Batch of 2 targets.
Target 1
Amino acid sequence: MAIQIEKFKYEKDNVASMIEWLASFGLTENQGVTRLLYSKEWVKAQHALKKEMERVGLHTYFDNVGNLFGRLEGTNPGSKTILTGSHIDTVVDGGKYDGAFGVIASFLAVQRLYQTYGPPRKTIEVVSICEEEGSRFPLTFWGSRNIQGVYGLDRVIGLTDSEGYPFLSAMKEAGFDPDTYVPPVRDDIERFVEIHIEQGMVLEKNQKSIGVVSHIVGQRRYTIKVQGESNHAGTTPMNYRKDAVSAASEYISFLTKKAKEMNPHLVATVGRLDVLPNVPNVVAGEVEFSLDIRHHQEGILDAFCEEIFSTFQSHADDGGLQVEISQWMDVLPIELNEEMNALVREIAEAKRIPYQDIISGAGHDAQVFGSFCPTCLIFVPSRDGISHSPKEFTNVHDLEKGIDVLSEILYQLAY
Ligand code: HGY
Ligand code: MN
Ligand code: MN
């Protein structure tokens, strides 16, 4: 497939310019980025990155699901691989840095190491992971969980995006034919290093330039369907209604109140809500909403889910409605590798870069790799803590400091 790569060029070895270049693949009219898995913007971005990786001397290849790798062969024959990178997909109208900075930083760090020291002892691979967000299809970590061997094709059969477009058709059109799919499981990865924007305001508030992530929260995502009965808005008395909107709004205010009461670190978010038939003069027969719940302790997640779902069910029973709760994401909280974190702290100290340990409230590919091989996740600050928004921004000094620390840990692990 001849991919038409955008004309936009970036200044070589310039992280700010490369951020703008990569953002040009899926730029929205309000300067956000929408680059969903297997979309045309996603295909162009992956192929443009592939070209850049080849330009600086990396051997490139795609695996069966569209993870892009740039390989710098180690001099030690048969050495295992130090993998570094992040995800290339975004949320809808997201920012220019989420995922993208990690891919660019790994690319620039490896390029600088190769230009300065030549080939490493251990092989280093830069990875542009195909999907992490779960923004187009109801599944997350499609890239890293294929590498780990947790996901296979069976996980996506019958899956469609919100427009009903089948996952397998999108995958095939992007150049990754499900008929030739074999699980792209890797058994040669020794360590994984990811750098990412914090997406919160802790580092900025504490005037730190580097975050050493000790834990990543566990995450559960659900689709909740409330089935009532459509009826006439004018002739149906209030007590005779099975109003799905009024029931769903009770559930949402209950879960919000319960999350605030139960634990200061617990977060619960309803980001999407669809109403049927969604017209002003009809009592809604059906509501479907998303629910994203996170905490770094599994016990809290269990207790919260138990309480809210039993409450939804008894409320629905009393009102003659049905409620259907389907879970489509369940990622355990994880503690990252302390030996690698100690190395990051040492490097930041030596470079006099202010740093602190931090818990990540956002999910990351590092939490998938973390249960598979020694893994660390390094944060750089987000201005005003804003992310998943066109306003997402990190100043270039912090970007460069991040690349500096990333280069040094890769040097110590692979050279
Ligand atoms: O939603 C998240 O935590 C991440 O940005 N995917
Ligand atoms: Mn991310
Ligand atoms: Mn994200």
Target 2
Amino acid sequence: MEILKDSFGRKFPYFRLSITDVCNFKCGYCLPNGYQVDKSDHRTFLKIDEIERLARGLSELGVCKIRLTGGEPTIRKDFFDIVKLIKEKPGIKKIVITTNGYRLNKIAHQIKDSGLDGINISIDSLDREKFKKITDHDRLPEILEGIKILQDLNFKNIKINAVLLKGVNDSEEEFNQWANFIKNNEIDFRYIELMQTGDNLDYFKKYHISAKKFIDYLNQNKWIIQTLGRDAGPSKNYLNPEFKGKFGVIAPYSKDFCKSCNRLRITARGDLRLCLFGNTGINIRHLIQKDDQIEEFKDLILKQLNFKKESHYLELGDTGLTKNLSTTGG
Ligand code: SAM
Ligand code: SF4
């Protein structure tokens, strides 16, 4: 079987697939004015039969993990059908999602029954008012209820992500709130450092703070960086024997961040993105129209990988095509 590898020796067993750009939340760093139809792009979002061929091709390329993201992936009416068909592909050992969790309390049972292997839920603060301010939605209690239902159903692999925002959720009090939350909860909580995108420069200037602030907190509070058996990927995880959950940090501006890159992306309209940022990547949709195109599709992905660059060059302010992360799935 082919293994996807780039010219810097990095391997790519993991794809993030956005299935819609649409989102109902208005996170200040992502879609502050809510989802707006892109009038310059008339292409529809990938249809289920296209996703099926895509998953088949990726599975044959040695991809073993697919994350469904968006926009908000659970908005799609055929969301669980998509999960099911990807799960049926023999090579895909893990299918996971990233969601804002807006109806988690209603779909928790379906999530468990669907066989999803993991869920990342975005919660920027445990303070209801702050959560509302950041997302424009007062839905924190429902999301937390959804998490509780999942845990009662013995659903494993729940992660929570928050974007670290200066003066909003970067205080010791906030960090302690999360520490209390994971003390007896087998949940990994990670802060993601705010990234600059094409649309959010003013927001970025106002709210960006280095993840170092949280790392200092972890060091002061006896959290120990996990070196052995660390999940391949960009999150640095920290353990503390007194806590059931783990802390983690995703710091895209840190030195060497791109060295551990193990993922490629496909947007909701079928553009391959070799990096979350940058201008590399082309449309692959024309090669997932018929079953007999699979070899051509695989060939194209293999060839494109040669164009993957060593770094995202984000520190130079080069956000490339990425207007906001709802189009590339974060
Ligand atoms: N709507 C889903 C959600 O919010 O989880 C999935 C898509 S969202 C684009 C994926 C992740 O990207 C979320 O955890 C979100 O917080 C994060 N994100 C969005 N914009 C970001 C930015 N500018 N910098 C850092 N993380 C960002
Ligand atoms: Fe929607 Fe996720 Fe973007 Fe928030 S981060 S606006 S929930 S896509």
